[in-house]
Amino acid sequence: MKKLLHVIAAVMIAVPMLASAHGPTRQMVEEKIFIKAPPDKVWAMVKDFGAIDKWHPAIASTELKDEKTRVLTLASEGSPTITEELESTNDEKMTFVYKILDMSVVKTITFNSVETPYYTLPVSNYKSWFSVKAVDGGSEVKWKGKFYRSFMLNPPVPEGQSDHDAIDTMSAVYTSGLENLKTIMEK
Amino acid sequence: MPKLIRLTFIKAAFKRVAFFLVGVSMLSACSTTPPSYAFMTNQLSDSVSVIDTATQKIVKTIDIGEGKRPAGIATSQSGHKAFVSNPDGMDIAIIDTDKLEVTSYIPVGAGPVGIVSNKDGTRVYIADWYKNIISVLNTDTSKIIATIPVGKSPAGLIVDDKQHRLYVSNRDDNTVMIIDTQHYGILNTIDVGTAPFGLALSPNGQLLYSVNVQSNNVSVLDTQQAKVVDTIAVGKWPYCAVVSPDGHTLYVTNQDDSSVSVIDTRSSSVTDTIEVGESPDGIDITEDGQFVYVVNWGEATLSVIDSSTNKVVSTIKTGKGPRGFGQFITKRQ
């Protein structure tokens, strides 16, 4: 988790001028990494929908509700959860698509006299694409997400729920996961 | 090379090329037909790319103003103006389509996104995403002359001058409204699919198509009966649509499939699916119906499709975060 926080800090420094367009706009984040390991080995590791905790440092455990629904419990205070659904897997192309169905509420504040929840991640309508591609001498792993920020009402936006926050958080989630995947696969 | 320096270098090179191209287009300015342009709103680079549809090249990049985040676009057919909605600038930029420059900004409040102009560019309708209203702009006086309360999160707009009607999709109400443009009253509210966003109208004004983002389909509405007469399944997370000038073909962008569905409007069936760039958003067609322009916001390009072959014939690089939400190609009829 410490690492994730570092990544979040690094991302915030690296992309201060990134888009902060308002609510109606869908956002996209894509991160990729080169891993010096055979694509089939990397694919075998990441395609296991019920085992992301094996390689993502921010995830403490994964529980499979059924073959396409998983509940992730994060390794941070209060053990927040994310429920995700696998939409499709393509073994030949080494890709899978999933979406977030539900998240736990971390806290609730009163913002402009409205009860405003903070979820595990500051995103809504989240959908994600994961892929492994054979490249020279190894694999290219790509993790992409499309989403809106969690706060869908008029500006002003409560702290931590802006487009910027949503982008930074997802970027940090992807980067920290991919870096750790690389470390594990290249061992 | 450090990122910032490289970026500055690329920008400088780009400006030189753009300057050269403007020079070239000026040389040919004596030809009789006025050029047709595609005006591309680049939301994340606060600019509008102007593409000459004859050459499929960018002839100019118009600066809209830092932080304004241009999204919606409306060209006026017989007018000489294009209108850009700036959600973060909370205003409308008016572009002179002969000089290719911004002539004025008109404040319109909270969250202008959807925008459409009548044929001669004298009335512009602007959907305010946050305030759930349509503002009516008189472009001769630059005054908002009416505001019409509509449903939740109004998005797509289409105006039909002949029938004196305005159509609005209310994304968060799952409805389409028909508004009388003479008295600004709501004539009908029609239930459609989930999260209607883009709208398209057949040239004869008979059929209205509502693209329903979250139900992955298109509702076909008969505008005279004011009801849904058909529903067509398309790709995933569809966004916007355009009808060919002959009314026979409907093109729909599927954001999460990075494709365009081609629909025969007479049989209401999908006849082809064309692979385009990452996350297609806005879509428009040239006046002669030959080329369909698809805005790929995920990779900052336009895919140009030849409608006779349904093949992508060129890919044009735009500014960052292109949207092109609205009618972005000028038409002269």
Please, could you describe this protein's structure?
The complex is a heterodimer of chains A (187) and B (333). With 187 residues, chain A is an alpha+beta fold. In chain A, 24% of the residues lie in helices and 43% in strands. Chain A contains 3 helices and 9 strands. In chain A, the strands form 2 sheets. A 7-stranded antiparallel sheet of chain A has the order 1-9-8-5-4-3-2. Chain A starts with a helix and ends with a helix. Residues 7-22 of chain A have low confidence and may be disordered. Chain B has one domain (33-327): Methylamine Dehydrogenase, Chain H, CATH 2.130.10.10. The N and C termini of chain B lie far apart (49 Å). Chain B has one helix at 3-27; strands spanning 37-42, 47-52, 57-63, 72-75, 81-86, 91-96, 101-107, 112-117, 123-128, 133-138, 143-149, 154-160, 165-170, 175-180, 186-191, 196-201, 207-212, 217-222, 227-233, 238-243, 249-254, 259-264, 269-275, 280-285, 291-296, 301-306, 311-317, 325-327. The relative contact order of chain B is 0.12. With 333 residues, chain B is mainly beta. At the A-B interface, loops of A face loops of B.
